[in-house]
């Protein structure tokens, strides 16, 4: 019981510290207070947006976009990254291509996306798929390329057929990389979301921030940013839970 | 466990050269010897001379450039569950529990057995190898010696006729190593196999083997084959026998000679005792 209390205090403390610093910056007089809304003002705006302006719809719309983008992007990245990572010959010519596309910032692609996909829902999701795919492919191919061939050999000496080697050795060894790819893609996708919702979105956290900036509503911008951070954090926590469950066998520093 | 005659394995003028960027690297050269039913053959030679390569050809991972490796008269074409292999690195599967590791081979099409029998076999080797308390643990919780016992149990579970062991105890401390040697002798007394063991330790070779193949510096050739004059079962006491000492100094001289020859080669290689 006492331990539980201590733990939650420990978890909360950095956040409390953050709010304290926020107040300190505002009250220090070093910055124009008009440029830094107070935490309680942001909290009030949060409640207002939540009850009166359908903030939850924005959260849901954005989350759905990220979800679909990551799901499709990773579903494509897993087989592609696996093949590139597994076959050395494929790696040699695919590696520079993948890195070329990954290096392009998604924002720079938006005009092209508008030309090819219009301004509706598909356009936004295409950008997220793009971002998830390339970050996922990199993780997969690097991970799979480092698979220890010893385990494959052991399985062969025990009489495993090629199908059995794939299903019983290679797949379990690939699961950690899939989970890492998912986590990286989720992070990248939330980061790309605002850019993707620049494409004439009516709802969504990104578009909410865009609209607020037109009218210089700083507190709304703050609410939007905090929401993005929170949802991304929750998704990451869920994934980490999942990893801990599936990957209990892994040796990790500090566990 | 005296060798009962029939040659099961024959290295027949086996030669192997690796195709490297710097040209052909001859690693095994014109090696010929037999492993008979029930033999325990130890192979000893300087580090990097080609011992693992030799074993890989019998395991079926590598084909000779010239000559043949015959298994019951037929050339080896690939790995199979008739030849259990213990690798130089522990090859236990980290994503499976200790028990699942042992059961792994028994769940493959090649040697599938009913679940009940599988559980019995697992139990038997968990007990034999002293791993029962760790049946549900992942290998990350095991010590080096326990991992090696697990690898041995997993190899034994599919009932191979041959056991190929590549410096299985090389990474263990002296006490654990000696325990493992005794465990191996015990389990071989119960379930006999035809064994090929690669080792760097002259004592280990004499203590365990019925015959010792001493190979030269790279490329590996057969320098001498020594019959070990002790029968089975054996115990630690044979270390004190005068024949043990004589054999040891004879083999040690040969090995040191080859070790020096290897050092004289262009590329230096490390020698681990
Ligand atoms: N696939 C390969 N391609 C090229 N060269 C190789 C390959 N495998 C091994 N070699 C070389 O062949 C030589 C013999 O290697 P091998 O692993 O058989 O030696 P070893 O006698 O088992 O050594 P150690 O006692 O250190 O384990 C080494 O010089 C090694 O660098
Ligand atoms: Mg070796």
UniProtKB/TrEMBL annotation, chain A:
<dbReference type="InterPro" id="IPR035906">
    <property type="entry name" value="MetI-like_sf"/>
</dbReference>
<feature type="transmembrane region" description="Helical">
    <location>
        <begin position="99"/>
        <end position="119"/>
    </location>
</feature>
<dbReference type="Pfam" id="PF00528">
    <property type="entry name" value="BPD_transp_1"/>
</dbReference>
<keyword id="KW-1133">Transmembrane helix</keyword>
<feature type="domain" description="ABC transmembrane type-1">
    <location>
        <begin position="59"/>
        <end position="243"/>
    </location>
</feature>
<keyword id="KW-1003">Cell membrane</keyword>
<feature type="transmembrane region" description="Helical">
    <location>
        <begin position="125"/>
        <end position="145"/>
    </location>
</feature>
<dbReference type="InterPro" id="IPR000515">
    <property type="entry name" value="MetI-like"/>
</dbReference>
<comment type="similarity">
    <text>Belongs to the binding-protein-dependent transport system permease family.</text>
</comment>
<keyword id="KW-0812">Transmembrane</keyword>
<feature type="transmembrane region" description="Helical">
    <location>
        <begin position="215"/>
        <end position="239"/>
    </location>
</feature>
<keyword id="KW-0813">Transport</keyword>
<keyword id="KW-0472">Membrane</keyword>
<feature type="transmembrane region" description="Helical">
    <location>
        <begin position="165"/>
        <end position="195"/>
    </location>
</feature>
<protein>
    <submittedName>
        <fullName>Aliphatic sulfonates transport permease protein SsuC</fullName>
    </submittedName>
</protein>
<feature type="transmembrane region" description="Helical">
    <location>
        <begin position="67"/>
        <end position="87"/>
    </location>
</feature>
Automatic annotation (TrEMBL), chain B:
<keyword id="KW-0067">ATP-binding</keyword>
<dbReference type="InterPro" id="IPR003439">
    <property type="entry name" value="ABC_transporter-like_ATP-bd"/>
</dbReference>
<dbReference type="InterPro" id="IPR017871">
    <property type="entry name" value="ABC_transporter-like_CS"/>
</dbReference>
<dbReference type="InterPro" id="IPR027417">
    <property type="entry name" value="P-loop_NTPase"/>
</dbReference>
<comment type="similarity">
    <text>Belongs to the ABC transporter superfamily.</text>
</comment>
<keyword id="KW-0813">Transport</keyword>
<dbReference type="GO" id="GO:0005524">
    <property type="term" value="F:ATP binding"/>
</dbReference>
<feature type="domain" description="ABC transporter">
    <location>
        <begin position="9"/>
        <end position="242"/>
    </location>
</feature>
<dbReference type="Pfam" id="PF00005">
    <property type="entry name" value="ABC_tran"/>
</dbReference>
<dbReference type="InterPro" id="IPR003593">
    <property type="entry name" value="AAA+_ATPase"/>
</dbReference>
<dbReference type="InterPro" id="IPR050166">
    <property type="entry name" value="ABC_transporter_ATP-bind"/>
</dbReference>
<protein>
    <submittedName>
        <fullName>Nitrate import ATP-binding protein NrtD</fullName>
    </submittedName>
</protein>
<keyword id="KW-0547">Nucleotide-binding</keyword>
